[in-house]
Amino acid sequence: MSVSRVLRGVVHRKERARKLTPQEVQELRYLARTGTFTQEDLSMRFGLSQGEVSRIVNGELYAHVPPATKEQEQAARKKARDEWIEREYARAMASIPLEDDRPPRM
Fold first, then answer.
1. What residue stretches are annotated with the HTH marR-type domain (predicted)?
2. Which residues contact 63 (CB under 8 A, 6 or more apart)?
3. Are 55 and 20 in contact (CB under 8 A)?
4. In the prediction, which pLDDT does 15 show?
5. What b/e string do you get for 29-57 counting C-beta neighbours within 10 Å, with b at 16 or more?
6. Percentages helix, strand, coil for the chain, rounded to the nearest 5?
């Protein structure tokens, strides 16, 4: 893919498609199955379109990738839990006003 084509926005669909490793495909399918993340969340997380996520989950893409093992599913579950905790912690911390943001006492 040439830089000039990227700058002009002329990039073939296959050139901009992100290739996933078998482990990423297994993680994506597991997370979709658990309902922890929406397909839109997964598309942002893996750098894909929502349609590509749907085709991967349904087995239309990466059909050759076998299902995840129990160990891989446990690792994906732990990673998803840790990310959720970090996201909720950041949201909670962002909702706490700083002392400078408080109105002066009368």
1. 20-58
2. none
3. no
4. 45
5. bbbbeeebbebeebbebbebeeebbbebb
6. 65, 0, 35
